[in-house]
Description:
The protein is of the alpha/beta class.
Amino acid sequence: MNLNETQLLQAYRKMRQIRAFEDRVHEEFATGEIPGFVHLYAGEEASAVGFCMHLTDEDRIASTHRGHGHCIAKGVEINGMMSEIYGRRNGICAGKGGSMHIADLEKGMMGANGIVGAGPPLICGAGLAAKFQKNGAVAVAFVGDGASNQGTTMESLNLASVWNLPCIFVAENNGYAEATSSTWSVSCENIADRAAAFGMPGVVVDGHDFFAVYEVAGEAIKRAREGGGPSLIECKLNRFYGHFEGDAQKYRLKDEVKNLKQSNDCLKKFADKVLDQGLLNKKHLAEIDELVAEEIDFAVNHAKSSEKPNSADLLTDVYVNYP
């Protein structure tokens, strides 16, 4: 795949940032200081980074309720994200969106979303805009296995195909739609098999393997940029935390998560490969681990010391003002 040292370091840093961010939010949420609901992305890092490394700020992505990883992979600023999760005025969305609704249009992040299956229609709009503007941009929707059954997703797959839009639909199948196993709720073994019904390529990839995701993502994005139309990619992966913070996870087998962390940790797989092949060394990775830990510490302290919105802020950002 011709990834150079700089790109490999970038990939590892982004994945490590996501993992450290989510692990710390998990700890901080337990203190009761973070308002609202939190859904963590830890364990799925290779999917977000594998796709977003091919994207620019001009490309658009739409996320899910589990959106922190997609935000970080797309380049959204971490201090602003942490402040947003804490509900502070200096958050990315002025503290009004919280964990489930972080958006940063300057970075092409159209928003995390609490509505299951809300992202695919949004990227059809972004894809249509890119097609009319002829700017070579693409749009990517990340959805879960639960959203793969929603009518909004099916209609978007059809619309993107009919209009030949530069859209990529990424089904991150972590095995559970909230607490329901996808083996009970999805009618076929592979979500990607549904692509055939809409006349587009469908590919299944190991979502724990950054290199596999990166390769598949590159092919689909290149195809879309060149006018080849949409694709449906299924990343089979796992989440290390519950559906939400506070989830008792009684639907999971004993030691399931422990075993997953030992056998299917995407960061460990990445590190093992680059070290075995001599592409990076342990010092490279250790330095990144240390720097990221410092970044997350600063982000948390910065958020906790930042100002909360006041009553006057309730009346702002209600309507859009068009010039």
